[in-house]
Specification:
The complex is a heterodimer. Chain A is built from eight helices and three strands, in the order ααααααβααββ. By secondary structure, chain A is mainly alpha-helical. Chain A has two domains: about 90 residues, no CATH class; about 50 residues, no CATH class. In chain A, β2 and β3 form a beta hairpin. Chain A starts with a helix and ends with a strand. Chain B is mostly helical. Chain B contains seven helices and three strands, in the order ααααβααββα. A two-stranded antiparallel ribbon of chain B has the order 2-3. In chain B, α1 runs parallel beside α3. Chain B is extended, with a radius of gyration of 21 Å. Classes of the chains: A mainly alpha, B mainly alpha. The interface between A and B is large, with 69 and 71 residues. β1 of chain A pairs antiparallel with β3 of chain B.
Chain lengths: ~150, ~170
């Protein structure tokens, strides 16, 4: 296997490296660091920080700046897909419903709405949007965070 | 080599994206996600294998170029496919941002935002989607997982366990 093939395989499997790093970071944070950081910000942080070693290794194997651009596009597109997958497990209503049924085996539709109240759902999302710095709360009113 | 891969990878993605838009304008498939997977991943992957085979006999290009073009195309497609369901399902977070954007300098209070959503829309629509996609089925007034639903629920359950995280709040 030549260096280029190896480097392409390395990029192909970079989401697994990201996942491993993310799992370790989340577990260490829970046990030792205890940083107050949302789950979504954690995955964004892990994705961004891994740009450095992954693109650097790709550069070392290929020694060209076009390779760096290429690696940047591929790694970040795969990283973005990984973020969405994780985010789905965190925020998707469908996944929440599936996991609720898994826990209870069988679920009455009205019971589903008992612990899934719309105001709770909206409050959770408002909190997430504030943590992600998409919106801000000023004197009980929400505004878009423009910068 | 990588400049060529960048150009060809992006062109391939745009070509399939244009095809996707064209098909959707003619007739939107019932199971959009499965159709997207076939259109963006499975058919192009089979095409790549076909090209690889031809290349073995004709040797018209370096296999690494084929691999790198497909890898870029594949990564862009994965990013697109993952974005699509959120945009399609009227994600509440996106709607909240939109409502706040529309309110301009006045802003919106929590009560005003909550009033814009109904529990019916937020939960029952998703239950209907899950029934339509055969992940769950209805029995009298209850809902249960199908075999396909059990597999998906187990994947996400194990996935969250790997991180030591509780089930997401939805």
């Amino acid at each position: 296997m030549n260096k280029t093939t190896f480097s392409l395989l390395f990029l192909l499997f970079s989401p697994l490296i990201l996942m491993g790093f993310h799992i370790i970071f989340v577990r260490l944070n829970k046990k030792f660091f205890k940083l107050k950081i949302s789950n979504q910000n954690t995955v964004i942080f892990c994705e961004l920080i891994l740009n450095i070693p992954i693109i650097f290794i790709f550069y070392l194997l290929n020694k060209s700046f076009s390779a760096v651009t290429y690696a940047f596009f591929v790694y970040n597109s795969l990283g973005y897909a990984y973020f969405h997958f994780f985010n789905m497990s965190e925020t998707a209503r469908r996944i929440k419903i599936l996991l609720e049924i898994r826990k209870n085996k069988i679920l009455k539709i009205e019971n589903l709405t008992n612990d899934y109240q719309s105001d709770f759902m909206i409050k959770t999302r408002l909190q997430r949007l504030i943590e992600l710095k998409n919106i801000l709360l000023k004197a009980k009113f929400y505004f878009l965070q423009l910068s | 080599m990588f400049i060529l891969s960048l150009i060809l990878g992006i062109i391939s993605f745009i070509a399939v994206l244009a095809l996707h838009i064209k098909i959707w304008r003619i007739k939107k498939p019932q199971n959009e996600i499965v159709f997207l997977l076939f259109l963006f991943i499975i058919f192009p992957f089979l095409f790549l294998i076909f090209i690889f085979f031809i290349n073995i006999f004709k040797n018209f290009t370096d296999n690494n170029i084929l691999f790198s073009v497909f890898l870029l195309y594949f990564s862009l497609s994965c990013a697109y496919i993952q974005t699509y369901p959120a945009a399609r399902a009227n994600a509440p977070s996106l709607q909240i941002v939109y409502f706040i954007y529309k309110s301009g300098e006045k802003g919106l209070s929590e009560e005003e935002i909550i009033a814009k959503f109904s529990l019916n829309k937020l939960v029952y629509e998703r239950v209907e989607d899950l029934i339509k996609e055969s992940f769950i089925y209805q029995q009298d007034n209850s809902i249960l997982l199908t075999q396909k639903g059990k597999v998906l629920a187990n994947i996400f359950y194990i996935y969250r366990k790997l991180y030591g995280l509780e089930v997401g709040q939805g």
